[in-house]
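Reposting from the mailing list since nobody answered there.

I have sequence plus structure tokens for a pair of proteins and want to know whether others read the tokens the same way I do. The first protein:
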Amino acid sequence: MTTCVRGMVLCVLLAMMTDCGDKEEGIPALPQGFNPDTVTGSKTDLITKWLTEEKGPLAVDKQVSGKTSTYEWFHGYTLKLTAKDKLSFVGDGDYWGMLRIYGPQKTGGSWGYARAAAYIRPQGEEYVAELPFTVPEDGEYLAVIGSPWVGNYAYTLGSTCLSGSCKAKPHCLEYETTDAQGKPLQNFYAINVSSYAEGKQILAKMTNFINEAILPGTCASQSTGCPKVYLPVCGDSPGYPKKTYGNVCNFKAEIRTLAGATSEAKGHWEDGVCKASHCTIWEGANPDGTASHTFYAVNVFSYDEGKQLLAKVKYFLNEDILTGSCGSQLEVCPKVYKPICADTPTTSPKTFGNLCEFRFYVMNLAGDTGEHKGKWTDGVCPCDPAKEWWRKYVSTDVEECKVLKYYCQPYTWYFSNACGCGCEQSDECPEWINCMPPAPQSCTDLKKKCPYSKVAY
């Protein structure tokens, strides 16, 4: 193995320095004129002043690999460390080498002298060095590895935190993606990483992203506080159904929650509320198979989701999974008069010409995103003016109603039945309108559209 020839570029430099060979037994003789501790300008030693190429950061508890060149004998990796941190640096190579720690870096950029040093020496069939290091003061440090004996030195270098603040602290890496032209794709990612440095390393390998952040703590521990602004978005994540969120902030909070404390999650959102792709409908049944006269309509976001929903229902009849949301279904019913009296949890009893009309009525109440149900009995609805809060009877004399003329105020309609006649409001109006302070935004509109509903102040 040649020990003197490492490139003529440095011959003059080395000749100017003290010729101090290493006296430790077993270590190959150093190149003529090479002393790693020779101090040059700004009190910086030879290695960091002339012979080291800085390669970038070295994350604690991580490992890097590389190969030096004929002109750069050593490679250096930076670490930001805190006083009293205890670390162990491990380096290996394909021949004898050196592992040295410098720092903290001075204001002018120099690294000073080596704080700790070890030879990469034979251990069995490998060349290895282990170098314990206690950080003397806060700052940026430089771990240097290489060999003055051979060129193109292949090595690996790693660091392990033994105690102190260098112990890896979890962070949450999050970002959104764009297309090649920079247009946002409305995709959001949340990834748990072991440290801030790991998050930076992931971002360094990526392209086409915006709104990136590396937040202290796990993704699940991030604040879920969001503004009370209703700008709905339809969001979903792989393996989870679509869902309407009050705003993008609420959607991102959900993705962070799915990522938990150790995993990762992603999702996509579209502006506006979610519109289901299918409508699952069925009629309830009793355990003996007889009809319970209950109808259900539920929006789902796939045919398979509809099948899974039906699998959870014990007893049912006349089930179907319709393409399109429940609210988008076009009413097609026979002109057959087989009256039923039906109501739902949010509407008053009403007479329908037949069961088909009532089924479409319930689907319409389910809308594009929700679900609804209703019960019915055969025949027209019995009337009882004392209980019909949604109506205002003008007369309870059926014969008088035949000739009586009267006026219904806006948002109400004429009606007549076996009990009399008068005006009624929409059967979608609630019996009570919530106007309790702080009054909801819907209070004023409902009072106008539902004049017969009672108001809670």
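The second protein, same order (residues first, tokens after):
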Amino acid sequence: MIRRQMIGANPGLHIDTLYSTTVSPAGMFSTWHLDQTRGGTLAIALDHPKLFVMCPPTQRNLEVYDKIDEFGHINQSIEALSKFEQLSYIVLTKGDVYIIPAGYIHMVLSMRNSAVGGWVCFKAEWADIARDLCRRDRARFVKEEEALLNDENALIYRAENGELTKSQFRAAMVELKAAKVKLQSDMSELEVNWAKAEKIYANLQRN
């Protein structure tokens, strides 16, 4: 119902059909992250309040974000608050609906046990931002692929020089292979999702 209402109230907004829900315990802190780079997020609060702190994908903010581990310590995210520019915040309470624009970097604090539902969404004016972020993702994947190749060559060298036992080498290679498979899956997912997003943006810009 919310999706239909938002589409009716925002003719220039395309909302994906896939819906997801994030459930968080009280005190849960999500460090700085992007939900996805191809579009924004239409979020609806389903329960108790959640605090969203966010900033746009300016060059400075992206440079700061690139140095942060998305799965790092809370302290690292708090320290980054003084480095980001154009910060804003919003507290979502039950029933609130909010659109997080494409590329907006954000962190979230759940004040009590809470849940937020959402859809990926698109606006014509986000196309260039999303396209640039997609290029950044591709470049990052290329670097990760090169790093994995270097790790593989290093393992082979160490094994050939007797620095690793056969069991150690096999275990390391299994772990490396799993990382390669995960990377290939992420790369494929990016291309599939972006191909769909390109069509959506083209349609929105025509209209």
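Reply #1 (J.P.):
I read it the same way you do. Residues 166-206 form the longest helix (41 residues).
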